[in-house]
């Protein structure tokens, strides 16, 4: 199921089971640097502070036995790869341990650590998106080359791999259909966007066309169900 459809309910205390889901990719995506990345090689002091705090919460939330403090051996598992080179290993260890010490003054347990981790991370624009590495995206005469395809309930974002800048945005409501096919040049997925009067194809060169098409189908189905539900309520209110 799409990530937004299975996000945990903090009131019910769902965070432990959510973090332990085998198909949950939020932490791997975060550490891989898909959710947070510097722009032009720079990142603000506030975000660096958040990253240190996120590292502390990740350390506390881990289900495995961890040492009391973060060390040079495990610090790389707590920091996004895209941000890690900005500071030295010792600087990251010092920053995260300082946050860890402050957090532990409040007797934070694993459940609260997981909740706080997600609470900070969900403010990031790419939080909750499913990412696909694709070889190329062709929009009429424009081509991206290798890039990231990010999908959520709002639609598709085509993102530059290096700086995470948005190249192209497609709203979910613009998507008409998808078509997967193969040629001698590779495997492609056509996404038809627009309306019945004016439309065009966005062509994606990818071996994950089935997964992308299926995920888009799930979001479109949920969106149509929600629209039908809202329409039904509005009609009922008009009759009452």
Automatic annotation (TrEMBL):
Record-linked SUPFAM superfamilies: PH domain-like
Q: Which InterPro entries does its entry note?
A: FERM_central, IRS_PTB, MyoXV_FERM_C, PH-like_dom_sf, Unconventional_Myosin_ATPase
Which stretches make up the IRS-type PTB domain? 139-220
**Record domain FERM central: where:** 49-132
- Mind telling me which Gene3D superfamilies this protein's record contains? Pleckstrin-homology domain (PH domain)/Phosphotyrosine-binding domain (PTB)
Any idea what this protein is called?
FERM domain-containing protein
